[in-house]
Each structure stands twice: as structure tokens, then as C-alpha cells.
Amino acid sequence: MSNPADPCPKSAVSHGVGLAGLAGLGLWTLVARHYGMDGPNAGFAAVVACGVPMLLWSLLVDRVHRNASTGIDWNAPPRPWRTVLDVSLVKIAGLWATWLAIAVFYCIARWYWSGDYRFSMNLFMGAAPWLVAASVPYVIWLDRRLIEPRDASYAFGQWVIGGNADRTEVAHHARAWAVKGFFLAFMVSIVPGNFAGVVAWRVEDAFSHPVALASFLIAIMFMIDVCMATVGYMLTMKPLDSHIRTANPLLAGWVAALICYPPFVLMGNGGPLDYHAGGAEWDVWTQGHGVLQWLLGGWLVLLTGIYAWATVAFGLRFSNLTHRGILTHGPYRWTRHPAYLSKNLFWWFSALPFLSLSGSLTDMVRNCALLGVTNAVYYWRAKTEEAHLGTDADYRAYSDWMERNGMVPRFFRRVAGRTSAGAAQPAE
């Protein structure tokens, strides 16, 4: 319950933008289900159907382009294009060099040319000529309106052409685009499968059994998460106030994040942190127990719903390893890391690692220990994110408010026998 005397700091994103994207995605999913469109292109169309309403809401309702954090002064007349051309050409050179470096990385990394990643590469190759052509007028148009066009992109362009570049800004540009290049390819690659997984379900099958219903609803939540997150990586733009303020400069933050994603993932099948050896998923252990299936399936749906809600709350700004504005609404009023918390709880209740098909105590201990290590990785990720975002006064204000008012921090303080951070009392 909120405390009127201690209001939560304002969120950088409104509720409406995420709900608008959710409505667009839902409408397209119904159309695709009706016409049986479950191919890769229909999947990517879901991203567009999700992104366009969010973009329109952001501009027409939230008017994010008017935010001071965009760095754009819409009240001043645009500069003559000739006065910014030198700066713009340097930025275009840096942008093209960035894209070239990402393309070379894609060529070197063989995993991008097989499996689901192939769809990403085909899409990027088709979009590349259009992006290159559009980048010239876009950069010039933006530079005419930016209060200070000599930003990180300009510094990187100066470094590319051998000029006197601010190395701090160069590093910021490189980190930001490394995040976008790595994660966008992954997100695009998993969109078709997640979308097809929802469209292919028959309603009569989904409602035939509590396990089937839970699986169907969980598939919907994951589709929402993937589509919304992909929009976030695509629409990283200053006029939308969704640009990257800073990318995490901590090596520990990058290591903690990358080991959770292909090809570096450690928790996958056969990986060193695979916690499924000799085990089975929840549906196996609940066979023949209808009430238990309803209860456990409902709990897993709820956890997945919180996970998807945490992504929806980002609106246009979802991204790993970056600061793109501080969220304080939705599930972020309960805890600083609702996605991590719900995801890790989901794994415990879906995998049930303390049970083994073979009855092997070794498998039970191993699986519980490895899932515990996986949880520790996400705790590590959370702490590196807090260290990064802690350089922003808005995040520090939010973090302090959360310690005082957040449902999850208060719960753990109560468990630990504390009434406030750092103030101990006898357990009740």
C-alpha cells in the first residue's frame, strides 16, 4: 500500500505506452490465429503491431519528444543545415563504421548463420540498405535540433576519422552499440518461435486440461515479453527519449549478463549450470493430481505474468545493461527486480529440482545446488545493475524509497526481524 506522506518518485515511462503495445500485439495475434499465420514474417509483424501503438502513444499522449532528457530544443528554430553538416558527416561516418563493425562480428560469429539466428541475419541484410540511406537525412535533421550535437556518436566519428576524440564518449558509444548489436539479433531470432507457439495452439486443446491451459497462458506471457523487448531494442532514439543514457561500464555486469544468453549461456541443456539432470518438469510430478495441477499451474502463470508485466512496464525502453530512464511503476513499485525475482521463482516451481525420476539423491542435491548458483548469477546481475544505475540521482531516490516502502524489501526485513533498513528488533 502506498504511503501518501512518502510518494514514489515519478516513473520515466507511463502505464499507457505499455498497454497500447499490448493492445496492438493482442489484436494482431487474434488476426494471425484467425488466418493461420504463424510464419517468421507474421511473427515479426507482431513486433511492428506492438511497436507502432507504443510509438504513437509516446508521441501523441505522453509527448516524450518534449522531455528535456532528449537533448532537443523544439522551441528554438532549427539550425541551417550547412552549419551542422560538418558535425553530421562525422557522426554518419561513425555510425556507418559502427554498423560495419557489427556486421563483421556477425560474419565472424558462426552461430549467427544457423538455426533461429538465420532469420535475424536475413532481416538485417534486407534492412541494411534502407538504414544506410535513411541515416543521412535523419542525422542531419536531428543535429539541426539538438542542443549539443557533439555527443558520443560525434566522438566516435572523430575517433574513426582520426580526429581528437573524447575517449570516454567513444567508450560509451561502443558499449551502447555492443548491447544493441548483441541482444537485438538474439531477440529477433526468438520472436518467430514464440509467436508461432501461441498462434498454433487450438483453443479446445488449451482448455482441455489444467496443464495445457497453464502452458498456453505461459506461452502467451513469453510472447508478450519477447515482442515488447524486441521493440525496446529497435527504437533506441533520442526523439522518443528512449535513447541509451549510459551502458553498463562494469565488466562484472557484462559477464553476469552474457552467461545468461546464447552462445555463452551456462544454464542451457548440458551446460555447466544445467539443473535438470535426472529430473522432470512440474507436469510430470503432478500427473493424476488435478487440484495440485490447478494450484501449481496457476502459480506458474502468475509468476510468468509478473515477468511479462515487468517488460511491458518498460514501454519503448527495454534493454539489458543500459540506463534509459528510471522505472518506478507497475511491478517496480514492489521490488527493484521483479523480472529476476519472478523468473527465478518460476524455475524452482517448474523444474522442482529436489525431485528426481531415478530417486537419486546425488541428482537432487546437484540440481538444487546448480539452480542455487543460477539464482546467485541473477543476484549478481541485479547488484551490477544497481551499481551502474546508482550513479543517477533519480535511481538513488527510487532505491531509497523502495527500501522504505517496497513490498518485497519490507517482507524480507520482516523475515529478518527488522522494522526498517538497518534497525533490528526482536522477532514477533
Automatic annotation (TrEMBL):
Keyword S-adenosyl-L-methionine among record annotations: no
Stated name of the protein: Protein-S-isoprenylcysteine methyltransferase
InterPro entries documented for this protein: UstE-like
Keyword Protein biosynthesis appears in the UniProt entry: no
Organism of this sequence: Sphingobium chlorophenolicum
Keyword terms: Membrane, Transmembrane, Transmembrane helix
Gene3D superfamilies: 1.20.120.1630
Transmembrane segments: 12-31, 43-61, 89-113, 119-141, 182-201, 213-235, 247-266, 291-316
Superkingdom of the source species: Bacteria
